Amino acid sequence: MQQQPAQKSDQLVIRGLHVAVEGQEILKGVDLTIGRGEIHALMGPNGSGKSTLGYAIMGHPSYEVTAGTIELVEADGTRHDLLAMEPDERARAGVFLAFQRPMAIPGVRLADFLRHAVTNVRNPERKEGQELMPMKEFRAELKAKMSELSIDAEFARRYVNEGFSGGEMKRAEILQLAMLQPRFAILDETDSGLDADAVRLASQSIARIGSGGGQAGHQMGILIITHHEQLLEHNVPHRTHVMLGGRIVESGGAELAAELHKRGYERIRAAFPEAAAAEQAMEDAARNSEAAGV
């Protein structure tokens, strides 16, 4: 049974968002609101702007916001301008991005990375060099989370993503999600490169983490960027959004995700010819850049 979101909750609110990369406009006016306790699916063809939205929310320096707003709105109405924050400040405020292709950090053990990250999120005012979360407390929590997610204890001793398989990288991202417990999580194609069993395990893990273990105030707002329905098996979306040509052109319930998985995007392209033309133009521009060696 799909869990119903709370009536009053924190919200991630995006209005009129335009984003450019290397001078080329990718997002062309995105509106989206996600409340804590809600699951949203974002689907669309390759190159439609889905990952760009995730990077823009987190403040990737290569993604220039040229218009629009991204705000965290507290349940009491207090508003925080994410665009005025650095990426680390956004993370401390409770926003998390699981990368489609996470980068390796040689020489930094996953456990050490997590201890620093968890400390900074739980103590946003902490300055570098100040005391970290007590080691005994951290180890106990990490061990419990890894056991809950069926992750071998040795995993935490490895360097972050160095020599990891695609599946191991995604499991490391899910472990980070479990430890950080953000208010809002953007999961960028967490199912990419995984076999069916691994996707099912990822889906179950995300559902368990996102619910906050049933604890009030620990639920997440989750945006799942995906091409497939399987990751949504245990994360039934309250809303499904279709991105085409840099815009969200249609929204619906879980049935829309099922339709897109089964039938693709031809109906969407026919219904929104201007967005379809923009999609084609973006593809042509990308192709020309590759041909020019840019």
Question: SSE layout and pairings?
Answer:
Elements: E1 11-21, E2 24-35, E3 39-43, H1 50-58, E4 64-73, E5 79-81, H2 87-92, E6 95-98, E7 105-109, H3 110-122, H4 135-148, E8 159-160, H5 166-180, E9 184-188, H6 196-210, E10 221-225, E11 239-244, E12 247-252, H7 254-263, H8 266-271, H9 273-291
Parallel strand pairs: 3-10, 3-11, 6-9, 9-10
Antiparallel strand pairs: 1-2, 1-4, 4-5, 7-8, 11-12
Task: Walk me through the structure.
- The chain is α/β, with parallel strands linked by helices.
- The protein has one domain: P-loop containing nucleotide triphosphate hydrolases (Rossmann fold), CATH 3.40.50.300.
- Helix content is 36%, strand content 25%.
- The protein is built from nine helices and twelve strands.
- The strands form three sheets. The chain has a six-stranded mixed sheet, sandwiched between helices. Strands 2-1-4-5 form a four-stranded antiparallel sheet, with helices on one face.
- Strand 4 and strand 5 form a beta hairpin.
- The longest helix has 19 residues.
- The radius of gyration is 19 Å and the shape is globular.
- It starts with 10 loop residues before the first strand and ends with a helix.
